[in-house]
Amino acid sequence: MTPSLLLSGLRVAVGAGAWASPTLAGRAFGLDTDANPQATYLSRLFGIRDVVLAAGTLGTPAGPTRDLWWKLGIVADAADVGAAVLGIREGRIPARTGVLAGLTAAGAVVLGVLALQAEED
User: Fold this and answer.
1) How far apart are CA 96 and CA 107, in angstroms?
2) Which domain of life is it from (predicted)?
3) 43 pLDDT exceeds 90?
4) Which range is least confidently modeled, 23-37, 45-59, 79-93?
5) Up-side HSE of residue 67: CA atoms within 13 Å toward CB?
């Protein structure tokens, strides 16, 4: 499976799951959704963003526009890494949650870069 299909498939699965079942998605990442019910709202924001990024890369023909979709996804995922680091440093999220979320986002950055490189080859 190519990095582009793998990342797009993961985006659809994780994004749709986060939107459809935000409590389950939050708990999977170690968030206490009972103590912070607003987390389900934020989970849905994250979820739809990932679905839209996948739709952009899957639904756009090869070329500069699809490359832009890959770059936008890389930026969003890199920002997620930063958010995880800040969340841990500020004590806003448990370290386990931040590490899990940060590593997941870092993996998405790597897959995004690989997908972009494959597009440009």
Assistant:
1) 16
2) Bacteria
3) yes
4) 23-37
5) 7
